[in-house]
Specification:
Elements lengths: L3 H14 L2 H10 L4 H19 L3
């Protein structure tokens, strides 16, 4: 059986291995990052419209 400290270190290593974009997606899936996900969605829509020449 693992100690509390060992479990804590495993969890920390898991999150340390994630890239920033992977961490953002994980948080968004779990409803933790709602405000940022709304901003990211707006940014993506604007970027796509600029690329299409609509703006």
């Amino acid at each position: 059986m693992k100690t509390r400290q060992e479990r804590k270190q495993e969890i920390k290593r898991f999150f340390d291995r994630l890239s920033p974009s992977e961490l953002d997606r994980l948080l968004e899936r779990n409803g933790i990052n709602d405000k940022e996900s709304d901003e990211a969605l707006a940014y993506r829509i604007i970027k796509e419209e600029i690329e299409k020449g609509e703006i």
